[in-house]
Amino acid sequence: MKLFTKLATATALTMGLSTSAMAQVELEWWDFLAGGDGVRMKALIDEFNAEHPDIQISGTTLEWGLPFYTKVRTATAVGQGPDIMTYHLSRLPLALEEDVLTPITDAEMGAAGLSKSDFFEASITAASTDDGQLMAVPFDIHAVVAYYNKTALEGTEWLGEDGNLTGIDSIEDMTALLQWAKAEGFSDPLSFQSEGGGGTWRMFYTLLRQQGGEMITDGEVLAGDNMDKAVKAIQILADWRAEGLIPEQAAYEASVALFSGQKAVMHINGVWEVPTFKDSAADGSLGFDWFANEVPQMLDQPATWADSHAFAIPNNPNMTEEEREAALTVIGWMQQHSMAWADAGHIPAYKPTVDSDEYAALEPNATYASLAENAAFDPRSKIAGVASPVYDAVDNLIAPAIHGFLSAEDAAAQMKDQLQGLMN
Amino acid sequence: MTAKRARNFAFSGIVLIAACIWIFPLYWALTTSLRSENRIVSDGAGWLIDELNFSAYAQVLSNSKLPVWYLNSVGTSLIITVIVLVTGMMCAYALSQLRFPGRQTLYLLVVASFMVPVPALYVAQFVLMNDLGLVNTWWGIILPQLIVPVVVIVYKQFFDAIPREMREAVLLDGGGEFTLLFKLYVPLNWGITAALGIITFISAWNNFFWPFLVSTSEGMMTIPVGITQVNDSFGVAYARMMALALLAAAPVIIGYLIFQKRVTEAVMISAGVKG
Amino acid sequence: MPPVHPLDRPEREAEMSHSNRRNRELRAAALLVAPFVFVFAVFFLYPTYKVVALSFTDAPLIGEGTWVGLENYAKLLGDRLFYTSLWNNFYFVLLTVIPTTVIALMIALSVSKLKGRMQALVLTLFFLPYVLPVSVVTMIWAWMLDFQFGILQPLIAAVTGKAVPVFKNPHWVMPMIAVVTVWWTNGFNVLLLIAGLRNIPEDLYEAAALDGATPWQRFWRVTWPLLWPIISLVLTLQLILQLKLFDQVYLLSNGGPFNQSYVVLMQMYREAFQLNHGGYASAIAMVLFLVIVIVSVLQFQLLRIGGRK
Fold first, then answer.
1. Domain spanning C79-308 has what CATH number?
2. What's the whole-model pTM score?
3. What sequence ranges are listed for the domain ABC transmembrane type-1 (chain B) (predicted)?
4. Scanning A166, B133, B232, B257, which has its CA 20 to 30 A from the CA of B59?
């Protein structure tokens, strides 16, 4: 009996090895998804692996931003890149410049069970070259939102009957709210990553775009009155900082901790932190009620910074046909399971998910769904996007100006100078 | 006499307190790692270990690739140590005991290479590793770290000090140079081998810059690289960061506490100062 | 057992065996040095040559470049960031080399006065940070100095009146990286100095004490001159080590704020691996190379003079 089983297993193994259909494809996957995002994505990967005995994803999460994109660039250059990775669409122009991505054909989309028309048009445009060649498959649209401490705002003029923010229609209104919170003992009433980096850029860009301002118009950085609008955006933040209404030099993690530690009454950050607060409210460790709304319109028009995560297949001459097919299978599968991703706060780029009833009932997504219409994407340029020269300018000029090391005017002027120099 | 003893006692006390302050960062990392995340950021934290919450350790161990990084660190560091010692002792023996053309030049090159800042070569070494197809492999991590001139120099000094009579005796017994080296010179200097081994191992284990450049995927990273480049944490993660740091440091800390005396000797010998 | 005396053999045989022995020695030497020489040539000498060669080209990190002569060096002369980096390297040397030596000397003198177990314990505590990986060191210090939640912030506030985000403040960043570095590497220096102190014969102190020398005089007349070779060794090793600063800066401040902690290796890394300028990065590396060679030769000379005095 024992011998027979052994024989049977051996035969099965031999046959399995000889037929390529049974061969397992191992896919190297890279992402930069920390936070609650990371947890959700790992769960998705595990689920995929369990469902697909023939494809195994082995995932790596690298440090977000510059470290990630440096590794991608270096690894791709030496042919050691992953088989599939997440990529920010704001960075697509830089990706084209660095030549790290491979085009994805319509036929390949079809093989993955997808078509361009399944996606929001804006995200497809953002994922394509100027002449329309798709270079990545969009996965979501993510924006900054305003998280707030509902418990603390209870009974104040800023919390409506429905539990949403209300009455914040100008910078002055916001300032009044923050001053009130400061008096209530919140040491840093509005927290965001104020040290520079992504958090500062998102805040600045939101304020710039709420004035109708543009970073780049016709190849010119901060042209015309965009300059004044940039100055004003920086000045608003600098004034808040001078009054102690926003934290001094808060690192990303600290900015989140300030809110969960009840030192901030409001927290402006990406939707990707939704799971963090969801999870800690669920296990009872948060200690207050929270919710998230679209960032209030405080200036001339509604606008909220936004970006997209997408899947991309890096340039790799050694990639086999099989691996590429497997990577496309993964991309298709992920889109069909993007409801779980929506649970991480994001708005899926895949329309069938967004149109589902399940999505319509998902909170707080449904409440801030309106922001999709006001999404302000980074300018499409090789100087912009995650870990781009614009980010350097944020660290070296905008953040220092917010903290009073130089004037808003100087910061904006120097930024224009530096970035314009890189445009040509 | 008693006054002097009291003074000595007080002096010892002060030095001990200073040493405890010196090591406080490690203590504080331990304290933090044993607390719950939300407590760390909400209460004003106390200075004492007042909570034994191992959830940060559990999460780090189950979520990170720490075991793989350990393996990479141990594997590459061991291979580096063995190759550096064996090639170093052979070369040092030849330099010390044999006459051959180019001997002076070789020795001068080895001594002069002391002055070269190795990181200045990293761009070229990276290009070389790429040409050899070794980026993101153990050998890619290992090969450029094999240049440890101090090993040759220290071995040579100690081999020089061995009396020639012992050598003649073995030679006349029909032993060759390899017999001499491995049966006589090395066994006479086991202490040096252990010391140089420890020093080489520690510096390979702790090297950050080169493995950081050459390991592109998570599965190839060594501990110092992995804990900074890979981010598996989420939300408020100070306890987890400290748990990760301490787990990463645990092997060297334990190793040092066990082999303390040898490590101390090793440092002194490697700098050419005999204790 | 007495060996057979070579003179017992006939003359001719001895001559032959001499040339045989010579050949055997050469062969053995070749075999013995071959592995080291191979590794040394391929992974050290060749890259050294390659960096020099690359610095005269416009090569990207991976791929061929064309010869551009001294263009990279000319560009370097006009690169403000490079001057900032170079200056920061020297500033860092200033902040670390002498302070760490002084601190190590004080610790070594104290520890060497202790006895037995106490000495072992104290030495262990002072040496322990040296065996830690750099990233562990920076993670712990970044947490201790965290602007919002760091345990050291109340201390900083007590001195300066308010908390300081040290790695985000242009005035604090380099000194704090220096503090972290000294904490991390100091144990090594302490050990060397203790070894040096142990080598000073006890009777010299006794003789000095009999002459009625105060502890202060004993230090300057006995300890200092006899310890000078070790002190100068520590200074030299530290100087070369600290010029190679990269890890701590990359991990703690990433060169910021406003490039106030940018150093030469950081710029080399950025040019090569982030901006894909292999040639220019090599030129930067060459400058560091030259600086370290010049400085070590100079310091060697200076220390020799200091020692003679």
1. 1.10.3720.10
2. 0.84
3. 70-259
4. B257
